[in-house]
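Aim 2, interim progress: modelling of the adenosine-5'-triphosphate-bound target.
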Amino acid sequence: MNKKEIGSIISKIEQEGSIFAKKASLDSLSFPSKIIGRKDQAESLIRYLLDYKQGYVVPYVSVYGRSGSGKSVVIRFVCDNIDGISFSFVNLRQAKTVFGAANLILAELGVSNLKSAQGINLAVDVIGKEIESVLQKAKKKLFVLVLDELDVIFYDKRGKPSDFIYKLVVLGENLKKKGFLFCIIGISNNVLSEYELDDRVKSRIGSSEIFFGPYSKSDVLDILKDRAGEAFSKKIDANVLEYCAELSSAEHGDARRAIDLLRIAAEIASSGDLEKQHVDRASDELQKDRISQTLASASYHLRIVCGAIARITFLTGESWHSTSTLYNQYAKIVQNGTKPLSYRRVSDLLTDIENTGLVTSQTSSKGRHGYGSSYKLVVSPEMVGIAISKEWWKGIVKAKLEHDFAVSSKKTRIGSRSRPLNNLLATMEQNNELTWKKYVGLD
Ligand SMILES: Nc1ncnc2c1ncn2[C@@H]1O[C@H](COP(=O)(O)OP(=O)(O)OP(=O)(O)O)[C@@H](O)[C@H]1O
Ligand SMILES: [Mg+2]
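Predicted structure of the complex, ligand included:
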């Protein structure tokens, strides 16, 4: 190949004509040009922050909700548009430790990193000094520190995440003594009080919370309509947009996924008209990606929990399964010689799986036993099973086929049977329904 040939490929692609006019509008990772809805959440935040005019702000606001519910974009948009405050928006996703988180805050404030040997106290001191100087220079009273994806610091148990939050809150108290105001906004998938915190932190942070529920179908549709208007070179069939919104909101109400779904469907449609079948194909592709991403970095036990949900869903044909059913299933497939995790740990893993978007949950009353969670796969069980282990999944499919066949032939009792059928039935005689259940771990 030479440069000329590359040139002719480029002009061929350019002549094809594209369904897109501005594909960037369907980039779910870049900041949107417009925020759709979420007025209640924006208003709550504005109320918390505007209190600074009265000389008071709450020390901590916990912003929480599922992935793709608009937390990051809405909080940033509000902070960007309130005059009179200074703020730093720090995404902690890259932080592997609590000290790493402190360094990310320092970097956002324009200060060079410290070495962990210098200690977390010094890091917090430097953060405080820098905030003071920012406020002095800007002649402002309030500094807002937004800590996005705060969940990650709670994985660093040795780094004492609760202590770190405590130190930041105390930093706010010290700033107050100097005539400034300081508010931390922590963004996470769960409300802050659900993480492991010392009592002294709990009593200081109060209970200022802003919840981002999953988007409804009509919310998602509004976001998609807005994006489609900018992104495409021609009008898109309203039914197709509605179909995208329906698929996304039925699963998880995640705007990021809905936008990705629309973009990939349009890539598949290429220069032709965007149709429902393209959305279906895009949805399959996204599911495969999500499953392989989750499983690629998953621990052995997380894979087994995923396998347990896939298997029970496939075998019973039922969608919802309680934590205790899933725990029993999990314990049955854990390899001989591997100690199963505790019920509590498996229940935590289910939450992790929910956060990756493979399952969704609902809480229901179990009468006098209190409340319990049930989980439902939002991707196909076959895809999950095959991604975990083809051989293992084949065994499950075979067992189910044999079982279903045995059940149906018991009912019909055909007189003459062909040889292969006889063979199969002979195995089924030994493998009656009961042993089959044992084989697949359903008893
Ligand atoms: N209200 C909205 N208006 C316009 N676009 C939105 C809105 N909510 C979400 N989006 C789009 O969806 C993407 C995901 O939203 P966002 O990053 O705010 O989710 P999140 O709640 O922070 O998720 P995570 O927990 O995964 O960080 C955004 O980049 C944006 O493109
Ligand atoms: Mg976010």
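The chain has four domains: 16-29+215-294, 57-212, 298-388, 394-443. The pocket of magnesium ion (ligand 2) is lined by residues 71-72, 148 (CB under 6 Å).
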